[in-house]
Amino acid sequence: MNKANLIRVYEGKSITEIYFKYRPPYPPIVPQAIMEYLSEKMGSSPQSKKFEKMLDVGCGAGQSTFIFAPFFRSILGIDISEAQIEKAKEINETENISFQLVNDHRFPVEDNSIDLVGCGTAAHWLNIPKFLEECKRVLKPNGCCAIYVDVLKGISNVGQKDAEKPKLRLSLIDINDIVIKFSQNVHAHDRNYECYNGYKCIYEEIQQGNKQWLKRLEHEMLLTLSQFKAFISTMGDYHIFIEKEKPSIDPLDVFASDIKRALERENESDDDVKLLLKLDYNVIVCTKQ
Prior knowledge:
By secondary structure, the protein is an alpha/beta fold. The protein has helices at 13-22, 29-42, 82-91, 128-138, 172-185, 193-196, 200-205, 225-232, 236-245, 251-262; strands at 51-57, 72-79, 97-101, 114-120, 139-158, 169-170, 212-213, 217-224, 274-287. The chain has ten helices and nine strands. Helix 8 crosses helix 10. The radius of gyration is 20 Å and the shape is globular.
């Protein structure tokens, strides 16, 4: 696949700054679970030593890279977005991490040189067979590939003004309906829907006998609706839509209205509506034999 076939929705400094500012970091449970799996396959304890090399594919501005810094002597993050790589280099204060721009599907590392290939919320943009082919090339024997994505599982009402009302909670189905409506409103790329189903289709696409899901990783975040809107605004497709279509009604405002209506808090400001987000981090792992 050449440059022209690469899907680019996170280009430019504006979306890069928004992504860096509002996209929440991965919680420690994610790298810890992945490192436990890698240590088991490599025959060592996560606390006993640092592994040599990691490659982070689709690293963005480093949100999925810096969390692994304590575990490796050297980490290379790669991405097709020049603006994201520039931001990653700008904020990088970690000696064992470097970043590199790539413009094809070939990893810029040697054969049999990598302990772990990580891919955080980026696999839906990749050609999975080509990605796995490169993983097989660059991983050491018993080296591992970890593909992971966050999945919003529920939203609970917090601190509503009317104490007499029941504390409503949005289920996974309710949330998906609202998020999918937003995605449709901004003409989001079809690949985004892989995230909403927790990478189940990507798991099926992996033709490797030792693939598996890691144990369920649960996490909670307390946000105002304004902060949640900022989180959702990190979707690159949204900014492409706003720039091209210049809509009279912001789809983010429609999204917020849908949330408030579902939680029966239509008369409150976005800043006053507090939400408890329940997330799962789905992690697919496989090992080079």
